[in-house]
């Protein structure tokens, strides 16, 4: 189901409208300025010019909500009115937004409904497609040689970042091992307008770096107008990852 660190699980929280449709930084770019952390069984929300909000991580008496991520059905446990009010105020939204948290027994997404290349039994919480998205620092450096203003890897929200390799070589890593963890590549990550949100300012331009990526990274004919940067992986063997570990390309 993706990365886990302490009580935090990656992409297990989702902002939604009151009728359950996802709200992302595509519609509300300032969402990238919100930070969520967990300590001592509490969720801590922080944002610029906002007071810190703490609520219990587990609120079993709260409602389970039917949600939609793109066109796919999924469920989440509502995080309560205090969180809803905090997010609605921060986004200065005229419509109420809510936060839900994925729990293991709830209905999950099946990535195979988005792309048949994913295994049928694969499940994820709220990512666009896969439990892991991996990319190299070199690919971002290559992109920066073509841009007027540099971007960082944070603009692309990968789960795993790899250093000390050639640009775009991750496109060829069909099977990899990091420590005990084994990953299998499924498909390239087709990039969208979310890459044009500056993670430092929360401002969306709807232009760069996406326009430049489209000039040389339309490498997957199936994804048509979506340039590829980073690769989606499924987890074949779970384990603990450590920053600084060596990545091995596995050949059979």
Automatic annotation (TrEMBL):
One cellular component (GO) term of this entry: mitochondrial inner membrane
Top-level taxon in the UniProt lineage: Eukaryota
MOSC domain span: 94-250
InterPro entries on file: MoCF_Sase_C (IPR005302), MOCOS_middle (IPR005303), Pyrv_Knase-like_insert_dom_sf (IPR011037)
SUPFAM superfamilies in the record: MOSC N-terminal domain-like, PK beta-barrel domain-like
MF GO annotations: molybdenum ion binding; molybdopterin cofactor binding; nitrate reductase activity; pyridoxal phosphate binding
GO biological process terms held by the UniProt record: nitrate metabolic process
Protein name per the record: MOSC domain-containing protein
Species of the source: Cirrhinus molitorella (mud carp)
